[in-house]
Design a protein that fits this description.
Length: about 250
């Protein structure tokens, strides 16, 4: 009995790193995949930096909609950078390892930025709703302070929720296999390696998904239902065209 407990304890403390095996099956194609993802990553960075630069240098674009667009571009840079550089390295090396601390840091960055982006997209939809449905009060409602408050609330909410969720995951003991069947550290693959009951954590993940992914999505849908209803009530085709054009940036995002 004592020997069994010692063995269990050793199994639970042996994991010092994880091995990401998501791209291992590609074998000799990994170099080609590396070039493809590197090119995509560079284009993503340049595109988002260009958006930020153009908006900052154009006084006519210093409006709430483009304020949110700058924030979204910054988030997109952070989002891709939290995953892609480490993935590119692993495409070139044989030993695709990541420390537990590195895995936690990657998951924190990925999850926090992801939830913040969802909340900001909802804020952007609210901005378009106010601009089209309440145009006379737009400058009053969507003041600079209101925009900063919405962006800050998105960050604070995301950080608070994900710190609790991810810290809970990494307080669990990991034992047995250290192979993560993915190309980066994510919730579901990590939960499979835990030596404890993860049912409560899975419920928390589901709740966070519903609240901070489906929630913003539903707010966006409701905003655009109201926007469409307002636009179709406009008497002229030119007025409807201009109203639709003001939503183009958000719809593309």
């Amino acid at each position: 009995m004592a020997s069994s407990e010692r063995d269990t304890h050793e199994n639970r403390t042996v994991i010092q790193e994880f091995i990401l095996v998501g791209f291992s099956y590609l074998a000799e194609m990994q170099s080609l995949v590396f070039l493809l993802f590197l090119a995509t990553y560079i284009v993503t960075l340049l595109g988002n930096f260009l958006i930020i630069l153009l908006i900052k240098l154009s006084p006519s674009l210093h409006t709430p909609m483009y304020f949110f667009l700058v924030n979204l571009s910054f988030l997109d840079i952070c989002f891709t950078t939290s995953v892609v550089p480490q993935m590119l390295v692993h495409l070139l090396v044989k030993h695709k390892s990541i420390s537990i601390a590195g895995c936690a840091a990657q998951l924190y960055a990925y999850a926090i930025v992801g939830v913040t982006e969802c909340c900001l997209l909802a804020s952007m939809a609210y901005d378009r709703y106010v601009a089209i449905c309440h145009p006379l009060h737009y400058t009053t409602i969507m003041s600079g302070r209101k925009c900063v408050s919405l962006a800050a609330a998105s960050w604070i909410t995301s950080i608070s929720v994900q710190l609790i969720q991810i810290t809970w995951i990494f307080t669990m003991p990991f034992c047995g296999s250290n192979l993560i069947d993915h190309f980066f550290c994510d919730f579901a693959p990590l939960a499979k390696l835990a030596c404890a009951d993860t049912s409560k954590n899975e419920i928390l993940i589901m709740v966070v998904t519903v609240l901070f992914i489906m929630g913003p999505f539903l707010l966006i849908i409701l905003s655009y239902i109201n926007i469409m209803c307002t636009i179709f009530k406009l008497p002229s085709a030119e007025g409807r065209r201009k109203a639709f054009s003001t939503c183009s940036s958000h719809l593309m995002v």
